[in-house]
Amino acid sequence: MIIKTECKDCGKTYHKNIDGAERSDRDSSRDSCYACALDSLTNGCCPEEGDFNSASIISGEMSDREQRELRRELEKVDWAACHADDEEDDY
Questions:
Q1: Which residues contact 60 (CB under 8 A, 6 or more apart)?
Q2: Crossing angle of the two packed helices 49-59 and 34-42, in degrees rounded to 10
Q3: Alpha-carbon distance 69 to 42, whole Å?
Q4: Per DSSP, what are the bridge partners of residue 13?
């Protein structure tokens, strides 16, 4: 389910994904939009690669399904990196 939420930091109205019961990482005390969540993570510095996904999760703009897909993709990348290291050791 998607609900309209007001960002507690900037006042912007944004859409937040609530799949099933609202989970602790998406509780109402953390109603920050993507931009404010990203700014909070980076403290005004340049974001790193994982910061974009983290901001989407924190803001609730990434659905549970998207989180599961992201997790699977990252696990595949980790698995491939581990096996690539094993192949390099064979040479």
A1: 5, 16, 17, 18, 26
A2: 130
A3: 24
A4: 6
Nearest to 30 by CA among 7, 53, 54: 7
Coil, helix or strand at residue 70: helix
pLDDT in tens, 1-60: 889 999 999 999 999 998 754 454 445 557 999 999 999 999 989 999 899 999 999 999
Query: What does the alpha-carbon distance between residue 58 and residue 63 come to, in Å, rounded to a whole number?
Result: 11
| Count of all residues that appear for the chain in the document | 91
Question: 């924190």: which residue's tokens?
Answer: 58
First to last CA, the chain: 52
Tokens 């006042």 appear where?
A: 11
Name the token pair of 56. Answer: 């989407």
Contact between 37 and 59 (Cβ < 8 Å): yes
